[in-house]
């Protein structure tokens, strides 16, 4: 019987589609070994699996997808491939794939009709930030973000729970299956945890720490150094120049418009970096890439949930959004003339400033701001 059919159906759904109550108790209380057994029950008997990350994938999503494919081949005897939509744009992420020689393919190179088993990793059905065609359904869903109602229709949905990274969940599976990862997979998972928890300093659980320590002797430190310190293109520094030049400080919040970006995941990197400004509790960066408007939010105020906030703001505009406690992102298709696009940006920023409680603050240019 599919794992989701035996759950208590009494759940409360939030405005953004996530469940405001914890994941169904019977799933949350399963041991890693029991989860693994159910995962393999769903996978066995299939011929070929495609595991998809979220679009414009980060290291956590890529590492977890590659590890899941590795596990399916080793324990379910299913040939498995990994695909992604969007681009891999940040220098560290490019180095991540290149140095570790990760076997991932862009969806433009994939014939979906070749596969009879589909998985989503670090994302969930119906959220709009992955490239699984609407005509197909994911049988496997593994994600550390808050559980969404739509995920429960999947035969296997391990979503939410006490994890700071999806890579941690895959380490639990590998350990339960007694599968020793290759040095490349171990390094990928290690960096996935490291990056998503900001060196175990953000939304980290004991399971993340245990997984990190288990991977440490199995990963390659030289490869890790090449990933963390890649050469950077000139446009990287040009983008940061734009970010700092256009950044405005509203009391405890900082907001910047990056205009056109060369890679959508640079929006998240800038939002992350601006959180280091002294006295900042909120960081919001946004930029345009191929007629899509990307927003990235970072939050220090523990009273706010970044994922819920961004979903509440974007629910009236369409597009896709998601995240969790301290970090979240959204993507919105753009149309209309330049003046309409500028008005949309102003409207969205205004809604964020209201939520931050700084709408009445006089904006100050970052480059002219004085130290307190």
Protein described:
It is a single chain. With 372 residues, the chain is an alpha/beta fold. Helix content is 37%, strand content 18%. The N terminus is likely disordered. The termini are far apart. Helix 4 runs antiparallel to helix 8, helix 5 runs antiparallel to helix 6 and helix 6 runs antiparallel to helix 7. Strands 11-12-10-9-8-7-13 form a 7-stranded mixed sheet, with helices on both faces. It has a 6-stranded parallel sheet with strand order 3-2-1-4-5-6, with helices on one face.
Offer a concise description of the structure.
With 372 residues, the chain is α/β, with parallel strands linked by helices. The protein has helices at residues 25-28, 32-43, 59-75, 91-100, 166-177, 183-196, 206-215, 221-228, 234-246, 265-274, 306-314, 338-356, and strands at residues 48-52, 79-84, 104-106, 117-121, 140-143, 156-159, 248-250, 253-260, 282-289, 292-299, 320-323, 327-333, 364-365. It contains twelve helices and 13 strands.
Low-confidence stretches: 1-16, 19-26
Tell me the series of helices and strands, N- to C-terminal: HHEHEHEEEEHHHHHEEHEEHEEHE
Radius of gyration: 20 Å
CATH architecture of the largest domain: Alpha-Beta Complex
- Helical proportion, percent range: 25-40%
- Summarize model confidence as the mean pLDDT: 89
Tell me the major beta sheet.
7 strands, mixed
End-to-end C-alpha gap: 61 Å
Instruction: Classify the beta-strand content into a percent band.
Output: 15-25%
Class from secondary-structure proportions = alpha/beta
- The count of helical stretches stands at 12
CATH superfamily of the largest domain: inorganic pyrophosphatase (n-terminal core)
Pfam families: DHH, DHHA1
Biased composition (Polar residues): 1-12
Domain DHHA1: 253-344
Domain DDH: 49-193
